[in-house]
Amino acid sequence: PDNGWWELILNGKVQDGPRTGLGEPKVTPDGAPIYWRTVSTKANELGKDSSKEPAEFRFGGVTAGDREPWFSVEQTSPPKLRGEGKVAFTMITGLGGCQLLRMDARGRTVWMPESPNGWFEDWTISSNGRRVAYGNAVSNPEDSAEMRYPSLHVDGRSAGKGFASSSVPVFSPDNKFAAFKVMDRGQMGIATTRGNRPKLDWHYVGAPVIGPKGQHVAFAGYTESNVQDELRMYERPQDHWKLKGKCSLVVQPLRGDTKVSEQVFDRIGQITFTPDGKGVAYVGEKDRELYVIWGTQRYGPYHSVHRLTFDEQGERLAFGVVREREVRWVVQTPGK
Fold it and tell me: Residue 160 — left, alpha, or beta (φ > 0 → left; ψ -120 to 50 → alpha)?
């Protein structure tokens, strides 16, 4: 606040404070708070602008790192938890560049390689907390300094080589590989860290979805889209409803031939694999009406569709729908 101070309250009890700044709190599954805080607690400094103050990162009752205080409040990003809440990551930016900090509940820290250009475009972490990927912003040598594309790094090593652009990836369920968007000469596709080179057949592609067995990658492939050229390597969920074009579902195996659905929609979303990874369902929109597609079956139209969910055997598909002011759950089996 402008004229006050901050305290961290957990289960009705003050855990930290008062401090001139404290924020981005999260709680791990075992109840440990994780947050950043300003170093100062002096009464005569309370109420002043804390954005430039030295700050430190806390995991439970432990302060991170061997450099504190080594960043200011305005340089922090919200922490991300992985590994069942045992590991936390945060991004620190400053005049000297940008770095990712990995910290565990014992205060052990690992610093990821620093971005030479001052920031990361985006970053993601595997579910077990052992792998990290980020897009390192670099200038496009074929255009002005205002045009920038991310250079993909996974576990500190460059990935996406051989392509003009690459996006931050999605890790597989077993965390053994990652899939990501690539673009070269105006055409796009989905590549993986397994090294297979994809065909770049699309004007735009949606975010990749990896099957539960890690054998297939599915995505929406657009032969036409309204996405501006300089934004095609980025995808934000809040902008998905604005996306429109001619697209089909693409299922790309790690080995074998890629399959493209014959059904064409304005846009596609909610791509969901069966538990065995052999089948896939999704929602397609056509002329503002929604359809659920599962194999050769097409259900709808609906006004909205929510939470495509398969049973454990992959024999039934359930989803919530709204149609003509009626809200209900629908359960479908193949061929019905």
Answer: left
